[in-house]
C-alpha cells in the first residue's frame, strides 16, 4: 500500500477501503484482549489507537493535499483536533451522554471499527 501511495497509484476509494479493512478487526482483537484479561480502559485505549493510527496513515496515502487539509479542518471543527478525536474527547462525549464506568470504554471499543457511511458512500464503498 505504501509503495502504491508513493507512486501515486492510489485513489481515495483505495485509501478508504484500506482504512475500513484496517479498523475492521477491532472486534476480533477485543475478544482476544478480553481473554487475556485486559481491562475495559486498556482495550479502549488499544482500539482507539488502532483507529487513530489508521486515520493518520490513510491521510498520508492520499494524493491530494487539499483533500487532506479538508479532512483535518473537519476534524478540527468536530473534535477540536485536526487528527480526529482523542481518547479523552471520546470519554468526555460518553460522560456527557450519561455513561459511567466501563460502559464509557465499551462504547469506545464498539465504535472503533464503525466507519462513516457518508465517506464510504462518497468513495463508492459498500
Describe this structure as you would to a colleague.
- This protein is mainly α.
- The chain has one domain (2-122).
- The chain is built from 8 helices and no strands.
- It has helices spanning 2-6, 12-23, 26-35, 40-61, 65-79, 87-96, 102-111, 117-122.
- Helix 2 packs antiparallel against helix 4, helix 3 runs antiparallel to helix 4 (40-61) and helix 4 (40-61) runs parallel beside helix 7.
What's the arrangement of secondary structure elements?
Elements: H1 2-6, H2 12-23, H3 26-35, H4 40-61, H5 65-79, H6 87-96, H7 102-111, H8 117-122
How many helices? The count is 8
Distance between the termini: 20 Å
Total number of distinct structural domains: 1
Give the strand content: under 5%
Shape: globular
Arithmetic mean pLDDT: 92
Low-confidence stretches: none
Residues in helix, %: over 70%
- Write the H/E string, N to C: HHHHHHHH
Output the radius of gyration.
15 Å
Biggest beta sheet attributes: none
How many beta-strand runs? 0
Going by helix content, strand content and strand pairing, the class is: mainly alpha
Amino acid at each position: 500500500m505504501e509503495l502504491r501511495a508513493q507512486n501515486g497509484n492510489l485513489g481515495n476509494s483505495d485509501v478508504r477501503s484500506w482504512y475500513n479493512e484496517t479498523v475492521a478487526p477491532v472486534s476480533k482483537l477485543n475478544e482476544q484482549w478480553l481473554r487475556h484479561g485486559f481491562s475495559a480502559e486498556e482495550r479502549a485505549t488499544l482500539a482507539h489507537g488502532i483507529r487513530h493510527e489508521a486515520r493518520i496513515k490513510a491521510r498520508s496515502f492520499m494524493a491530494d493535499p487539499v483533500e487532506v487539509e479538508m479532512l483535518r479542518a473537519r476534524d478540527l471543527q468536530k473534535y477540536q483536533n485536526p487528527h480526529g478525536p482523542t481518547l479523552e474527547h471520546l470519554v468526555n462525549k460518553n460522560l456527557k451522554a450519561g455513561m459511567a464506568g466501563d460502559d464509557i470504554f465499551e462504547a469506545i471499543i464498539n465504535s472503533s471499527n464503525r466507519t462513516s457511511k457518508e465517506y464510504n458512500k462518497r468513495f463508492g464503498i459498500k
